[in-house]
Amino acid sequence: MSLVFKKASRENLLNVPVYINDTSNFSPKYFRVADVPSTLEKGKNLLRISAHPTNLVDNSQIFIDVRDSNGDAIYFEIPDYVEGDKSRLISIWIYNDKGDNNTPNGDATITIVGTSKVGENGEQIPDRFRNRPNVRWSTVLNVDRDRKNTSSVIFNSTPTATVSESIEKYQDLPQNGTALQLTTQTGNNASYIYKGTTAVVKISDGSEFNSEMIGYPLQLSGFTTPATPQTSIKNPINITSYTSSILRLINSTTAVMENPFTTQFSDRVDLTHTFTNISSADYSISYFQTGSNTSTGNERSFANITFSNVEPMVGVVDKVKVLIKSDGLPGDYELLNEVTVPYSSSFSIKVPIPSNHLRDPKLIKLQYLNSVGDISRTETIIEPFVFQGGNLYIQQRVGSTTYTLFDSTTGAVDGRNIGRQLVSDSTEYTLDNSSTVTEVTNYSVTFLPFETKLGISFSMKVSSTGTQSGTTRFYIAGAQTGSGKYDDFDSEVLLSTRAFTSVVGEFTYSPEDSNYIVDIPTELQGRFCKIIVKLQNGSVGVGNTTKVKNISIISTRTYGADFSSKYVDTTPSLPGPPL
Predict the structure, then answer these.
(1) Is 90 exposed, middle or buried, given 0-12, 13-18 or 19+ CB atoms closer than 10 A?
(2) Element (H, E) at 560
(3) Which residues pair with residue 234 across a beta bridge?
(4) 356 pLDDT exceeds 60?
(5) Rounded Cα distance, 334 and 325, in Å
(6) What would you measure as the largest C-alpha separation in the chain, in angstroms?
(7) N- to C-terminal Cα distance for the chain?
(8) Domain boundary among 385, 411, 436
(9) Which of 126, 171, 196, 306 gives 576 a disulfide partner, CB atoms 3.0 to 4.6 angstroms apart?
(10) Is 194 helix (H, G, I), strand (E, B) or coil?
(11) What is the DSSP pairing of strand 453-478 with strand 429-432?
(12) Adjacent-strand bridge partners of 306
């Protein structure tokens, strides 16, 4: 759609002698002109004519001429296309990216000449003007080659589009407290120029702009010479620094700014002075750099849509609407996104797909809009496509630790209140007068997939004739399964040891104890196991006794097990964009 340069050479119809100079606005008696633009804008501009069925000579030719402010011909085409009302389209091409061959801004003239049967008042045409071009209509309008095109977008052939899916990971944005952590770039030898309606900053110190800076404010300060033209009016508010957001980049060292450098005056609030030049200054810009993102592991589905043959007869496609619906089901299309597209006949866009549209055949409809949002009558429908989707993790950050609360790839769920009671035993178990490590009870348990932690609580009592220690130990052993196996277990693995020294003492271990949580050995996770409880006295002697009761064992996962962070800071993190 960035127009191929074409040059026209034709007769200036303003110089053709005619009998009738039609001065009406839309030539209702002869050419019936419609959609006359007030301004010719970049790209292909629409004009319609519909020859009068009785006033013009049958099968006579209609001549058209368009001239710029220099009197040179402006290229136009008459597509081989007839509207439903029998009108013909005129496509007037305005160039804005062809350098010296750009269409000049200023007044342009459209002239139409034809052959009429009758004069303006119905009189006969004089013999010397009869059966030859004898009626002319013209209008003067403005050319603004940098203005977005507002003509209706009309196609003669439907654009083609293909879709593919990409699965992309989300990122966490680096933060300083609750604010984004920005990257600052500084330099010198930056110049500023304002010409027409465009403010430009150019850097010449070897540094470069990048696309991530677009939309962020750039500041110029430390001018080597004052900005010009200098003002002679007293009390300007600001003449030593300039700040404006970057609107777009021309190249890696030249940026178009959103606003020019201006100042007002402390005692003249109605007066504004505009500077057009800063020869050299220091610059600074702070922006968010995506390279400092960290991956969260979350994934999202995107539709990558590639367009070709986006070549309307008139108008310029400025945006594309992407709509979706289930194939074969009633109902309207749902809007997914509206995307601004480049000035080109082929391009690609990327649109996120919500989770409710995954794993189900979907129809995608594409609509083409001009710069004011008018939708073209031509649409593209993409054949049913199934988006598979990616991984989803719901996470919570506590301090410097990120916990995965939901993992869609494995189906694992974690949470502060998620766990299972495996053992609840109020029986009292006693070991008297023995220093041998002795099993007093055991429990058969089966771990669910992704259970990784155990929480062990119990009450313990030690008594003796003198000071001695009592110890409670918890072991685990995996079951041997299959044919020929009955009550067979692997070697025991120590889970936890609690020793308590006293003449007579009691202690209850609970979630407040720093050793309450223990790891389930990796090789035993998701398996049938036995948890064994063993007691030991520190020495042999009458009256030396260790007792344990109220044994409670729960199974859980990482987040639920982290009692060190049970008081959770729920300040939300800023969301991160896809990679």
Answers:
(1) buried
(2) helix 558-561
(3) none
(4) yes
(5) 6
(6) 145
(7) 30
(8) 385
(9) 171
(10) strand
(11) unpaired
(12) 162, 348
